[in-house]
Amino acid sequence: MAGLSLYFEDGHDDLDDFGFDDYATDCDGIRITAFLDAGQDNLTPLGRLEKYAFSDNTFNRQIVARGLLDVLREFSDNENDFISVMETIARMSEDGEPTVRSELMEQVPNIAMFLHESRPNFPAAFSRYLVPIVVRYLTDPNNQVRKTSQAALLVLLEQGLISKGDMETKVCPVLLDLTEPSSDDDYKIEAVAIMCKVVTMLSKDTVEHLLLPRFCDLCSDARLFQVRKVCAGNFGEFCSIVGQEATEKLLMPKFFNLCSDSLWGIRKACAECFMTVSNSTSPEVRRSKLSPLFINLISDQSRWVRQAAFQSLGRFISTFANPSSTGLHFREDGALPEVPRCTSD
């Protein structure tokens, strides 16, 4: 509740409408859903929700958006009331005021967790009402709304709340649209970053069939260095997920190009992820192709690239070790577990 007082700087005249007259104006004790309480009107609680959710007063709509989780708690016991509230949320998501949309999106992860814990039909309700909002806000014209949606998407994925079907049919298609060559620059840069973040939370099959071809194209984006830099910084994650065959066949040519990019920041990013890339290749590719490439980076004209390469040197060398003789094995994620060794007399 801290920080709610910020919304009241120009809104004190509206306090009585919400039934907030018994609270101090610093709002430390405000119950957000006080607007549902019976007042001077003859409306039902759902009617009052409708009244304030679509009020002409932006402040009223912001308060409703911030209190949606508490609203759902009050109406979740009755199925018809629950559906009415979810329909109201869907309509509120189309609000013309960016602050209302951003406020609503901030509540989506909390709402999703509540539904997951309390609703037997969580997957259907979440997929029908909330996922479309998250996806639509990824293309919102307002930067803050987009950022809020991107953060919400990552939280939902980390919690395992978005189904594979929704990722493949709703989220990934939008990311692919936003990373088209003709896409707006700002949207494209943001979409590449979010694509590279979500890739670690998706299955190998989804990444390989939906996102890998586009990632390869983005690595060669000649116009936007920011796109190439994001790709270089996340190159190792893609290699780890798709495995050796796809890495050597599709990704290695792109990695060679990025390692010789005209911008030192991109070459530096390649040096930093070199071990992860190396772990995803065969010993022969490691020896014949990656070793000469690493020598180029360690003697790069930029001292920042050389420094990053020297810092990665030990990790890169470790990928040549034979687990049967060292008793150690570097996994694709860079972890170093011990492996059993057979000893002879």
Automatic annotation (TrEMBL):
The Phosphatase 2A Regulatory Subunit A helical domain is annotated at 90-318
SUPFAM superfamilies per record: ARM repeat
Alphabetized UniProt keyword annotations: Repeat
Q: Which InterPro entries match?
A: 2AA_helical (IPR055231), ARM-like (IPR011989), ARM-type_fold (IPR016024), HEAT_type_2 (IPR021133), PP2A_Regulatory_Subunit_A (IPR051023)
Q: Where are the HEAT repeats?
A: 211-250, 290-328
Coiled-coil ranges from the UniProt annotation: none
Where on the tree of life does the source sit, at the highest rank?
Answer: Eukaryota
What name does the UniProt record give this protein?
A: Phosphatase 2A Regulatory Subunit A helical domain-containing protein
Species per Swiss-Prot/TrEMBL record: Ilyodon furcidens
Q: What is the lineage of its organism?
A: Eukaryota, Metazoa, Chordata, Craniata, Vertebrata
